[in-house]
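Quick start: load a record and inspect it. Here is isochorismate synthase:
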Amino acid sequence: MIGATPELLVEVAGREVRSRPLAGTTPRTGDPETDRQLADELVASTKNQVEHRVVVDMVHDTLLPFCSYLDWEAEPSIVTVANVQHLGTYIEGALTEPTAHVMNLVKELCPTPALGGFPSTDAISFITTNEPMERGNYGGAVGWMDAKGNGTFAVTIRCAELSEDRRTARLFAGGGIVAESNPYAELAETQAKFQAMLSAIVRP
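Running the structure step on this input writes:
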């Protein structure tokens, strides 16, 4: 598995815990003025704000029982990566004593609604029945941890699974579907997300 994920699922350092969910996406064009306009439209988009809020609320509500203090940005900010721009929200807090092991938090958070839908039980059941592929490690988490329960895990998006001989790669990308989603816009978003891996592994 290789990847270029921009999304922090959870980080634990002593009593400190952080997450930065990303949901809601618009392309980058290479032109700064056009990209600023697209970013403004992303922030103003009800559809993308709803998509983002569902994920932020789930991450917040999941972390809250483990924390003595939890804070988050009132409004999402723009997170710019190579090919796209996202809505992102930092969530930070202090874990109660004894502190939760980072892997316990990973298990509670994964998958977020951006990958597994919401309400999670019904959505995952629907995906399992109707999605015509095996996700493998896509949509899971990858990271590190130590013996004290500290660690950092990212969401496995913008990723690829390599074959054993390293001669072929299976790429993964997708979009968050909500009531106001446009299929053509979601397809264009997914194609833009693929470029993160394609630009790294495809050479002329």
